Amino acid sequence: MQQAPSFQVIDGQLIGARQVVSPNYNQRPEHTEIQLVVVHNISLPPSQFGGGYIEQFFQNQLDWSQHPYFQTIEGMQVSTHLLILRTGEVLQFVNFNERAWHAGRSTYLAKKDCNDYSIGIELEGSDDQPFEDVQYSILAEVIATLQATYPKILQHLAGHSDIAPGRKTDPGPFFDWPKTRALIQQYKADQ
Ligand SMILES: [Zn+2]
Predict the structure, then answer these.
(1) Could you tell me if 106 and 23 are in contact, meaning their C-beta atoms sit under 8 angstroms apart?
(2) Which of 82, 119, 133, 146 has its Cα between 20 and 30 A from that of 15?
(3) Would you say 117 and 171 are in contact if contact means Cβ atoms under 8 Å apart?
C-alpha cells in the first residue's frame, strides 16, 4: 500500500515535526558527517507520561521544585534532536546540522563522542513499560526519512545503552529492535 510521506528534511529541519527551540546545542566539529542514529527513552518524572516536563527540561525551563525527582537533575543542560511522545507527536529541539547534547560520554565502533556525529531520538518511555505502537510506526518513518537524507546512517542505528554501556540502560528491555528494523524496511518498500 502506498502511503504519502509525512516527513521531509529541509535544511536540517524535520518538516512534520513541531519545532521547539532548545538552547542546549553547539556546532558539530568541522567536516563531520552524520553517521549514526541513537535511540533513547526518557520520562519525567520517571515512568510517568504526559505533563510536558520533558519539553520544559530540554528548554531549560523545568521548574525543579515541582517534583522531588526534578531536584536530582537540577541544572542539567541536555537536549535531543527529536522527541517522539506517547501520542506519536514528534518534536524537534535541535537542527540536524547542529550538535545536540543527548549521548554524553559514549563510543560507537571505536569512535568517541557520539554527539559529534549522531542524531538523537528520544522516545517518551521508560525501561519498565512497553512503548506505544504509534511510537514505533512514527520512529520507523522518521528513521527511513533520515536515512534517505543522510545515507551514512543506513547501517548505524544504536541504543544509548550500546554506546554508553554500564552508564546508560535506555531505550531499555521493552524497546523492540526487530520490530523497529522491520517497520523501517516495510515503510521503505511501501514508498
Ligand atoms: Zn539516553
Answers:
(1) no
(2) 133
(3) no
155 CA to centre of ligand 1 in angstroms: 20
Instruction: Tell me the mean pLDDT in the region 46-63.
Output: 98
Q: Which three cell numbers stand for residue 162?
A: 550500546
> Looking at the domain 8-190, which fold is it?
Lysozyme-like (3.40.80)
Of 146, 143, 123, which Cα lies nearest the Cα of 135? 123
Distance 4 CA to ligand 1 centre (A): 31
- Residue 56: predicted pLDDT: 98
Report how far ligand 1's centroid is from the alpha carbon of 23 (Å): 18
Give the model's pLDDT for residue 2: 54
Q: Are strands 18-19 and 98-100 parallel, antiparallel or unpaired?
A: unpaired
Provide the annotated active-site residues.
122
- The contacts of residue 142 (CB under 8 Å, 6+ apart) are 7, 14, 82, 84, 90, 121
Q: Which three cell numbers stand for residue 145?
A: 526519512
How far is Cα 88 from Cα 84, in angstroms, rounded to an integer?
A: 6
- Residue bearing cell 552524520: 34
Domain boundaries, the chain: 8-190
**For residue 3, what pLDDT band results from cuts at 50, 70 and 90?**
low
Residue 191 pLDDT class (50, 70, 90 cuts)? confident
